[in-house]
Structures are given as C-alpha cells and as structure tokens.
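Researcher: We're teaching a course module on how sequence relates to structure. For the next exercise, students receive a sequence and then see the predicted structure as tokens, so they can try to spot secondary structure elements on their own. Here is the exercise chain.
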Amino acid sequence: MENRKRNIQIKFRVTEKERELIEQKMAQLPIHKIGAYMRKMAIDGYIIYTDLSPIKEYAKELQAIGKNINQIHFISLYL
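Model: And here is the predicted structure for the students to work with:
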C-alpha cells in the first residue's frame, strides 16, 4: 500500500436507504465506482446550509398568537 498514490483509507457506515440514494445519484453520472464518486463528492461537492432560526422564531410567535385567539374564542363562548 505504500506504493499507492492514495494510501490513506477512510471508512464510514450508511443505512440501506442511504446506500440506495447514493447509488441513484451515481446512476446520473458517468462514475461507476463508489470510491471515485465518494472522493469526487467529498472534494468537489458542496453543502447548502440554510439558517432556519428566524423561521422557527416566526412559527413560535404564530403559535402563541393562535393560542391567544383560541383563548379569546373559548371565553366568548361563555359570555
């Protein structure tokens, strides 16, 4: 292994569903070896990160408003 160009091995585990998804994505490309695909994605692939914290805050506020409306409706039924 010392004479190999790539002499460091990286291993990781996936579920059956994850493996199927990887194979589906590989089928869209002219890459047939999973090692080549994984290396290409790890080096050249990109990750899109979306910060959802503002949306979560809005959802929390909407939930509080909804609770207030329900309380008003409940009270008005008994007046």
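Model: If you want an answer key for the exercise: Residues 49-79 form one domain. Helices lie at 16-27, 34-44, 53-77.
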